[in-house]
Amino acid sequence: MRSTTLLAATALAFSVLGATPALAVVGGTGSTAAYPFAGSFQPSYPEPPRPDGHGCGVQVLAPRWVLTASHCAGKNPTNARTGVPRGWKVRVGSLDTTSGGEVAEVDHYYRLATSRDEGGFWGRDVALLHLRTPVRAEPVRIASTTPADGTPARILGWGMTCEDSTNPDCFPTRLHEADTAVQPISTCTAAAPVGELCVGSRDGRVGARNMDSGGPALVREGDDRVLAGVVSGPSGDGEPVLYTDVTRHTDWIDGIISGTDVPPDDVIPDVEGSVGLDGCVGSVVRPPGAAAWDGALLLTNGHCVQGDRPAPGSALVDLPAAREVSIADAQGYPRATARATRLVYATMTGTDVALYRLDKSYARLAAEGAKVFRLTSGPVRAGDPLTLVHASGRSTCTAEAVVDRLREGAHEMAGSIRYATDADCAPSQGWSGSPLLAADGVTVVGVHNTHNTAGEVCTDDNPCEVAPDGTTTAVRGRAYGQQVDRIAPCLGRGTRLDLHRPHCALTKP
Fold first, then answer.
1. CATH 1.10.10.2840 fits 13-258, yes or no
2. What is the pLDDT of residues 330-375, one digit of tens each?
3. What is the DSSP code string of 97-144?
């Protein structure tokens, strides 16, 4: 039942790379002159947590091509390898992220590796961004070979000066730089076997920091500064920072820029209607009989509520809420937004569900083009085909069995849906609350809520099935969803909750 984001381990552009720095590039100074090839990558999705929109660094390699880190280009809703972004731009050739230089829109991205790859993207954390219009900036040349240990290196970036993402003073708009060196790879204890450079002072006092990702490590070749690596991720505390060795990937880079070896776009799965909820997923559902002007309801898991979770054997009813909601289009970008103003109901007993009321009606959301699903009034049965709509795609599932009782820690649920072990149906952390659709593709008949992560029996994150005679069975990797047919009988006129209605079987407070 844990609710963690899928990209938490990979979104290094927004993670703190070590101790709090005094400057963006620790141990450095404010740059006195712009580097024509250096730029700021400013994606609009997800919304950057800083006023200037900066997310990562980029380097101009050709008039319509810039290089950054793969995880920076992972700021697309489905974590696709290649595709067409929305609202991405770069500002190059300026000291300042908010003015000067040249601004160009990104119309395509190509990532060498993603977090889905076996072994992740360590040593391969590079991406190319294609610009809709060319820039005049003088490109930087890639180094001809991997720099030797001890090679002097200059690093650049607009990274954060402190860890408080709510403090505007933590976000420098002026470029910083520092002179340091390439260290033996063993100095970075988090390093993968090959493909990385360890750059910075041995004690970590000079180095890159949060939001310097994608920025350069420059070395000398003759009279020129050339690009040896881009910031990939942290190592240990008090250590230098890991950079992907760009010199190892010149064939991949040249193949794309020249047009001789361009990867095809990923097929983007249809995630229309999914709602990201800080490590969980939700969906807007319309119960039978609901009027178009009724306040819309958002469905997710009980364990996905903000604040304290429902206690075992109880429920939360009609509480204030303040939760921003973004309803995705087919490619995962925001189609409509709303605000959850009340927690109508939440429980983790008998089932694991939560309902929020939004500040917009079904009619208003429909007018904005948002996907609204129907809420079922009938149960899932063994053998029923299901589609699991999560934040990064769709999975085809089958209800292998309806489990009499499912126990997880102190909570027990009835009529849980056990998925057949189809190759395509392997839910991950962060998918909690994802809607399970019936064969018609528009009716929500369940919500995913848990899977056994370690093979333990009846512990948190390790649910077990409880037979009528009390026998327990736990299988590592086995996943479950929860029935939602009990919700509709408890909703009256205006989709108001009434737990005393006839046939209402939801757990009461």
1. no
2. 988 899 999 999 999 999 999 999 999 999 999 999 999 999 999 9
3. SSSSSEEEEEEEEEES--TTSTTTTTT---EEEEESS---SPPPPBPS
